[in-house]
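Course exercise 7: structure representation. Students receive a sequence record and must write out the corresponding structure in token form. The form below is the worked example handed out in class, using ROK family protein (410 residues). Read each field label carefully; the graders check that inputs and outputs are placed in the correct fields and that the protein name is recorded exactly as given.

STUDENT ID: A-19
EXERCISE PROTEIN: ROK family protein
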Amino acid sequence: MTQTRTTRLERGRSALGPALELVHTGQAPTRAVLTAELGVTRATAGAVASELETLGLITVDPHPTAPVGTQGRPSHRLAVNPRGPVALAAQIHADGYRAALVGLGGHLVATAPGCGTVDADPAQVISEVVRTGAQLLSDTGRRCVGAGLAVPSAVAEPEGTALNPLHLAWQAGAPVRDTFSASLAEAGITHAAGGPPVTGFAANDLNVAALAEYRHGAGRGAGHLLVVGTGHHGVGGALVLDGRLHTGSSGLALEVGHLTVDPGGRPCHCGSRGCLDVETDPAALFAAAGRTPSDRDSLLAQAGELIRTEYATDARVRAAAGRLVDRLGLGLAGLVNILNPDRIVLAGLHRALVEADGERLRGVVADRSLWGRSGSVPVLPSALEHSSLVGAAELAWQPVLDDPIGALGG
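STUDENT ANSWER:
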């Protein structure tokens, strides 16, 4: 490295993390845009981009081009390195688990599902999903920067314990983060050969899904993003404020599944009745439609398929979906009144509902809320197929985004 380039890089080292995040989230497709967004000189931006390329994180097109029909100096295109390092992501839900490798930009490199039932001992399934992830790493030969776990429970901070795994047979307070970290060490998943085990993170599945949608999906550009969605059982929610998850004082905020939307409704696992958790999840759809799900696929997948294939042709399915839409709209209206979001993104089965009858849903939100009526809050389907996995990977990528050289040992 020349002295001039060294000086430029030292001047711009503090910009490495922000630069990587801009490329990671698609906000800096060219070096010219990167220069403008960082507020640095072209030479400093060039040195920063070159260092990120040396670290194997991004690619810099050596042949600068200008968009068709534009004037001015051509600029080098920037992109995440498709062969770069990955984060190991894991999601556990009532019907099993899924492991994945996720690169920068939220790109899924490989995925693998597993098991049809989740053991009452969290260590059992966590160990299984980690071993599955370790096999993916072995098969692809990728370097791992860290690992994230998404679980269907609020995760208390700083303890890393699952406080309310209502849809799993786990005891409240299961030490999911410590168990995950121990499984990573046991599986020998390290940053480099002979190095220490990668760091493991754990969080609520809807929280990390919201982070993924904000950075890579339908939530891009929102200032106050509300995400509500169904898992395989139950309903969760999350709020992203100016790019940061709002998790409350100890990680337990936005338990929206236990908003009452029908006081005389179905009994809820929490002890109440008529909560969003039991009025708008996949089981509620099958019950309202008078259908019995099979054992061949996950309840969430079957519910989505039912709406996609029979909503237009079966009156009972259409009526059942309408019932869920009305209950969901009531819950969203209450959240709009309290939180005043500028965008709502719906995931899981709720994504299928807004795609099937978004006009009806938006009408309920507008009619039953103050800010929905006056501000026309956009209600959108999620854009990511595996948002909780992508979000779990974001937890692992964050230290690299904060300090690329420090995190990767450069």
